[in-house]
Design brief:
Blueprint lengths: L2 H36 L3 H14 L13 E4 L14 E4 L1 H7 L14
């Protein structure tokens, strides 16, 4: 490979790594802000999440599919709390489409 092409490839890879690192840093910062808003530490959230998923047998409470995420039934945006009584297992499509809406305002689409 010619030296110019090698330099170009190395610079390209360095730029990609830097961009990826910056993106991951922003993602981590967003998660910390969200956890702070939820009022629970990362360790407490991990334990609460595990308890809810096990309680619901990893079954989405909206569609009956495989539930591997946890959703606030009453969203934080509507002053919902981060308690096991306000959390349910949800599949990613249901959780993503519901977003911060109450269940009554959400129209479930096909997710399987």
């Amino acid at each position: 490979m010619p030296p110019e092409a090698m330099r170009f490839c190395l610079q390209f890879l360095a730029d990609r790594l830097e961009a990826e690192s910056a993106r991951k840093g922003k993602d981590c910062q967003r998660q910390l802000v969200r956890r702070e808003r939820m009022g629970v530490s990362s360790k407490a959230w991990a334990e609460l999440r595990r308890m809810v998923l096990e309680r619901d047998d990893y079954t989405c409470q909206y569609c009956g599919g495989y539930g591997d995420t946890v959703d606030h039934v009453v969203p934080l945006a509507a002053n919902g709390e981060t308690t096991k009584d306000n959390l349910v297992a949800a599949c990613l499509p249901c959780n993503s489409s519901k977003r911060d809406r109450p269940v009554a305002e959400w129209e479930m689409g096909p997710c399987r």
